Structures are given as structure tokens and as C-alpha cells.
Amino acid sequence: MTPAIRVVVVDDHQIVRDGLVALLGALDGIEVVGTAADGREAVHVVDETAPDLVVMDIQMPQLDGIEATRFLTGRNPALRVVMLTMNEDDDTILAAIRAGACGYLLKGAGAEEVQAAIRSAAAGGMVFGASLAARVAAFFAGAVATPSTDREEEAFPDLTDRERDILHRIAAGRTNDEIAGELYVSNKTVRNAVSAIYAKLHATGRADAIVKAREAGYGLA
């Protein structure tokens, strides 16, 4: 039997918090193990309950959701965090991704969308609400003028030539399997290189690495 997904719910509005607890608690395979009313409390609750995933609001007192996410995923990169918020501006979405969030939903999302997002995020996926997906995809896939090699090397001087080649493909949206096929190397070789790239870029995950790489000119047409 597959273990239940252990979830902590973080929101400063009790009505929203209670509603999410009721929604998630009624679903098979999901167990709400704790709640918090702000980012600072979330840190303590996560320490006490060791969840698989956190559903996190952004605008909260004491410590906002983005800073709480950055702190939590910095200590535990395996922790999955899905933002659930009213804020849909591009800068906030990118800030959440850079902080280590693996998903971003708006509070108008329906119960089925929230449920599907949590299951997908817990399984290792990146999830975005239906109204945000196109904008996020456009950012990751959009093309601009090709930058110079000098700019690329200046941005990440510690990368090897092979890591630089792989980063170009990551930034262009390739999966590890696709990269392995294109470079005629094993999946393990690619995985090891990707881990090294994350460390050298100080990236919280693939989405954060893509953001940083594209800002430096990688993966662009």
C-alpha cells in the first residue's frame, strides 16, 4: 500500500486554512499532519511533522511564504512546496520558483485542481494553475537573440564544457532522457551532471536552474 502524502497547510486566514484541511483530509492518500498561520510558525510545524509537501500562502505576517519556502527548501531540497495564493503577477511567480516552490495555484482553483496539483507535486512534478500555465510556459520557452559565449562563461565560470552543454539543453526544456539521447551518454551521467549544475548555480531545482540559465543566455534561440 502506498503511504499517504503528508501535508502541512499554511495560511494566515483561518477560514481558508480550515477549508483546505477539510478538503484534503477527505481525500484518499493524503494526510494533513499540521497547519500554520504564518511562515515562522510553518518552519516549526514542518520541523515537528516532517511532511512530504507544504501548501503555502504568500502574503502572511511574521515571515512571508516565499521567504519561508526559501528557508525550508534550503534545509531540505526534497520538500515539495505548492503556493496557493491570490497573487498572480509574474515577478511573484518567478520569486516563488526561485525560492524552491514546485507549484503555484490561485485560490480560485477548484477542489479537483488542488487535489491533482498536490498529487503531481508530491510525485516530483512542477504544477501551475490553468490560468498561469501558459504564461509560465511562455517564459521558459520564449526565444530572444542569441547571447555571446563570453556572457555565458562569465555567468557560471565554474561549469565544465559538458555541464555548459547540458545546461543549454535544460534551459531549452529538454528532459534528462532527451539530453542523454542527444549527447549519447547514459542517464546516470546526465543526472550526475545536473546535480553538479544545480550546486554550482545554487539552484533549488530544475525550474530555478532554468530561470537562472535563461537570464544568463542559455537555451535561447
Automatic annotation (TrEMBL):
Membrane-crossing residue ranges in chain numbering: none
Pfam families referenced in this protein's UniProt entry, alphabetically: GerE, Response_reg
Ranges of residues in domain Response regulatory: 6-122
A Gene Ontology biological process term: regulation of DNA-templated transcription
Keywords of the record: DNA-binding, Phosphoprotein, Transcription, Transcription regulation
Gene3D superfamilies to which the protein is assigned, alphabetical: 3.40.50.2300
SMART domains (alphabetical): HTH_LUXR, REC
Organism name: Nocardioides aromaticivorans
Name of the protein described by the UniProt record: DNA-binding NarL/FixJ family response regulator
